[in-house]
Amino acid sequence: MQKIDDDDLKQQFMSECNYEFLFGSDMAQHAELLHFKVQEYIVENLVRPKYLFYLVKGKAKLYDSLANGKDALIDFFTPPCFIGEMELLDAKSAPFSVQVIDDCYCLALPVAKYQAQLLADPTFLRNVCIYLSRKNARNIKTASRNQGFTLSQRLAAFILLTEHDGYYNEKHTQVSEYLGVSYRHLLYVLAEFVKTGYLKKDRQGYHIIKLKPLQQLAREVTSSNS
Amino acid sequence: MQKIDDDDLKQQFMSECNYEFLFGSDMAQHAELLHFKVQEYIVENLVRPKYLFYLVKGKAKLYDSLANGKDALIDFFTPPCFIGEMELLDAKSAPFSVQVIDDCYCLALPVAKYQAQLLADPTFLRNVCIYLSRKNARNIKTASRNQGFTLSQRLAAFILLTEHDGYYNEKHTQVSEYLGVSYRHLLYVLAEFVKTGYLKKDRQGYHIIKLKPLQQLAREVTSSNS
DNA sequence: CTCCTAGTATGAGATTTCTCATACTTAGTG
DNA sequence: CACTAAGTATGAGAAATCTCATACTAGGAG
What we know:
The structure is a homodimer.
Chain A: E1 2-3, H1 7-16, E2 32-36, E3 41-43, E4 51-65, E5 71-77, E6 81-83, H2 85-89, E7 97-110, H3 111-118, H4 122-148, H5 151-162, E8 167-168, H6 172-178, H7 183-196, E9 199-202, E10 205-208, H8 211-222
Antiparallel strand pairs in A: 1-2, 2-7, 3-7, 4-5, 4-6, 4-7, 8-10, 9-10
Helix pairs in contact in A: 5-8, 6-7
Chain A binds a DNA duplex through helix 7.
Organism (chains A, B): Secundilactobacillus silagincola
GO molecular function (chains A, B): DNA binding; DNA-binding transcription factor activity
GO cellular component, one term (chains A, B): cytosol
């Protein structure tokens, strides 16, 4: 983690993300701009963060480490979004890990100094409530899909969700944790898609060849898609 | 759903659950007392509720119905707790179903009339934030456990969690949806516990005979138990 | 240039979990 | 009292998924 002293950049991020509108009073002036490198932790498992973060650029993942060594990847964070809000609100919460996937910039408010002020600001609280509510709904959807559908179905849906220009290019290690299956099994089903001719692998990644059957597989997963 | 016009009872529930302290202004006077029978819906799938509920007695379940006919039981609601807060906060949310397990009493505020007032009340918002935050953390824990551990381990943990006086007495239908497995498989593992001598079934229910090995099985599930 | 880490790949065999079929029991309802 | 819905139980076979082992590749760090 590194503090970035570049007011122009900070200002740019703030206006891109409408940072000032998150609060009822002018908190923007107190925010620091922080930078995190790939694989750094924004929040480390069970360590209470010192800032309330607002992700303005990059990508991160929220995950839960289980006692048997497995990791469950719960959610992806993409700008703009709060990070560390659970810990700000609830002194008793046990923080989950948030780790950087692509280099991140965050606007950050020191908790110690501004917690009281934030907890009395209805504009801020309303925004956090909505954010938490959507995040919870998303997490519930993901969890119930992981439980209720087979990996072929979920993977088809995930490929269609993350595809760019007909190419699927996600990291298998991460995807397996997100879809809640072993790496081995993910590769197995992926290989099956290739064998069936739905996908074809080339230098650019996995190329979607047969869209229709993938959509068909994904149909039940995606429907009821709030 | 039935409105209960019993001011004494309402007053009693309010003081039991510290209802008035949830708000910055006196909302208590506007709350109605409602009663729901077993299997009634407090919130029906995709139907926006007309009230913000506060469960003061009884038990209910939150679940997500998937397009393939399966239901994922996400969370149990026990007093005191909000119901319908996601819908109050976020106009875009797609409500999940909340169905009564044991007859419920709820204090209820009409959304149409008081939404604006509630969304400007920092005391209320703070309470909802904390509630949402804990609920989300709980849901995440449940989901990642369901993914990361085998049913024997999860069931052992669940038995120890819900046991009363050495007896396990939950409904298999519900538990299977909560633990994210088929009814058949739950019964299979349960029968295994009986065969191994961990449990013994009598008129009162499943009696815990060997606590130690159950605790051992549950250990990794329960550890990291925020 | 070498080492190390993260990521990709595949095989083989074992478990876990699912589907479907079929019965039986119990409590509530007309 | 008969009917119905919800819950309990068990068998058999199939599938989805896991564990473990083993190789190979690419990129960053020293």
